[in-house]
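We treat protein structure as text, and this decision shapes the records that our systems exchange. We quote a single record here, exactly as it is kept in our systems:
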Amino acid sequence: MTNLRILSIFPSLLNVNGDAANALVLAQRARWAGHPARIDELEPGGQLSVVPDLVVIGSTADASLPEVANGLAGIRTELADWIEGGTPVLAVGSGMDLLGEDFAIPTETVSALRIVPGGVPDAPLGRVADDLVVNSSFGRLVGFENHYRGFSLGEGALPLGRVEYGVGNDRSTEGFVYRNAYGTHLHGPVLAKNPAFADHLLGLVIPGYDSRSVPAGRADDMAKAARNSIAARLSLVSE
């Protein structure tokens, strides 16, 4: 059986709030289901050696955004081809922002990749740092948002879900879905707390993927308990 190849882009820079660990969640859940998986890490200046099955892009602080944007520019063609070709991509926080249009930070304008239709609005939301609860096609998604900018969806992009608690893109919608690329403000890492989302991504590339196993079931139970604990604290209905 061929290894599932998961590409983690710039994990040394894009790991605010543990977002690079989403690659670990994908790899482990694939292995629990009997599918060999490996994580390939690409750092700035490195060479792409394989065509990935899945791509994970994490988040970073504003001070590092120009360096990250410059590094991503070197692989823009590959990223655009993968996304347009249907490769599943998960982009979190500023990693999501960088897939859209250019946007301003206090020190300069960041040159984004302009692959996904949409981007950061000119008017900032103001600092948001709180729980974020989203109703999505994968069920309830729970995580932590820590951002200053929103995200406006362009033509052809859909929201990942609707905000039940928190701010997300604009206090109404959260994230984006464009082809098989998914953007979100949910940190955590998001896939550890929301395994149904991870299983959806894996199901896009593994024919007949079935997540049911004893280890996955235990992890799912712990994730559900964590989501319900947050829901109870926020006075929301538990799952």
Q: What stands out?
A: The domain at 4-233 is CATH 3.40.50.880 (Rossmann fold). The mean pLDDT is 96.
